[in-house]
């Protein structure tokens, strides 16, 4: 039987050699090993709110290439999946479950489409860019209009992410950390992630991966197709989809929320033999804001597989 309480042993920071070298936070435990992959522009600190809730299983939280304390590498989906496979091999993990959010969720799903020796994978809000045809159908617009609306969403989100990772004066960075701590229980993880990714130089703080690299990583979204990946699954995949209303974002395209809602509806209707899809009334970063609910869904999924 899997232990249901977190291990009393402290987490350890381990370096996985290779090109690029990867930083991994390891927590001991019993049962199915969990490999945890954060989203674009984030770090392994994002998993701290969820870590105590994952049933005492061994955990391997990874800083993706170009993020946190891992080294830089090509910003491709193939490269990110290769890194996960290298982590599995380095630690000798058998029948592991790979869990990811956003970009990490895409990597988790794609790993499940390449490795039959996984116990499972979990994709939290990692859907890539919306597809024009289902978006058009759900919004009652033509395909060309849908393409335009999706393009506006893409440009806006890329520019927002690039601006978020632009170097800032040290005092402004310190103020942003204070702002994170005011966000509530998950603010500490947000602040810790920002500190982990920060590089200081000449009075400026530059968060990794930086504006140029983040745009290159966004191109990896083009490489991911949920329809294609789920047809190729070799291991069970749970997809968690946010159904919470999209909050108003200053400067966002007029149909920003509509496009994202259409994408969520499309993902909830997707079917495949090894795919399980679950809606969660929680924000996009649900593993931070609703860790108990996410942990429950993951635990139920793994239990259904005898893991």
From TrEMBL:
EC id: 3.1.1.85
Gene3D superfamilies in the record: alpha/beta hydrolase (3.40.50.1820)
Source taxon at top rank: Bacteria
Presence of keyword Hydrolase: yes
InterPro entries in alphabetical order: AB_hydrolase_1 (IPR000073), AB_hydrolase_fold (IPR029058), AB_hydrolase_sf (IPR050266)
Residues of the AB hydrolase-1 domain: 33-121
One Pfam entry name: Abhydrolase_1
GO cellular component: membrane
Group of enzyme by EC: hydrolase
UniProt keyword terms in alphabetical order: Hydrolase
Keyword RNA-binding: no
Protein name: Pimeloyl-[acyl-carrier protein] methyl ester esterase
MF terms (GO), sorted A to Z: pimelyl-[acyl-carrier protein] methyl ester esterase activity
């Amino acid at each position: 039987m899997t232990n249901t309480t977190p291990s009393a042993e402290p987490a350890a920071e381990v370096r996985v050699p290779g090109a690029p070298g990867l930083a991994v936070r390891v927590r001991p435990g019993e049962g199915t090993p969990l490999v945890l992959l954060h989203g674009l522009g984030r770090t392994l600190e994002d998993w701290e709110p969820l870590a105590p809730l994952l049933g005492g299983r061994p955990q391997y939280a990874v800083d993706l290439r170009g993020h946190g304390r891992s080294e830089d590498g090509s910003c491709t989906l193939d490269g990110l999946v290769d890194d996960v496979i290298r982590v599995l091999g380095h630690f000798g993990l058998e029948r592991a479950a790979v869990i990811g959010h956003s970009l990490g969720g895409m990597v988790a799903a794609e790993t499940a489409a390449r490795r039959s020796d996984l116990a499972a994978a979990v994709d939290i809000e990692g859907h890539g860019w919306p597809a024009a045809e289902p978006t058009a159908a759900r919004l009652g617009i033509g395909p060309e209009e849908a393409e335009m609306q999706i393009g506006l969403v893409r440009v806006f989100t890329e520019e927002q992410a690039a601006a978020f990772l632009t170097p800032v004066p040290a005092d402004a960075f310190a103020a942003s950390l204070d702002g994170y701590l005011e966000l509530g229980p998950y603010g500490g993880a947000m602040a810790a992630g920002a500190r982990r990714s920060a590089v200081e130089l000449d009075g400026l703080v530059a968060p990794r991966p930086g504006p140029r690299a983040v745009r290159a990583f966004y191109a990896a979204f083009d490489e991911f197709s949920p329809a294609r990946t789920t047809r190729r699954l070799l291991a069970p995949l749970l997809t968690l989809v946010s159904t919470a209303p999209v909050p108003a974002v200053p400067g966002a395209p007029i149909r920003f929320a509509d496009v994202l809602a259409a994408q969520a509806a499309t993902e909830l209707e997707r079917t495949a033999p090894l795919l399980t899809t679950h809606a969660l009334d929680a924000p996009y970063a649900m593993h931070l804001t609703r860790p108990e609910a996410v942990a429950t869904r993951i635990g139920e999924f793994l239990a259904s597989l005898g893991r």
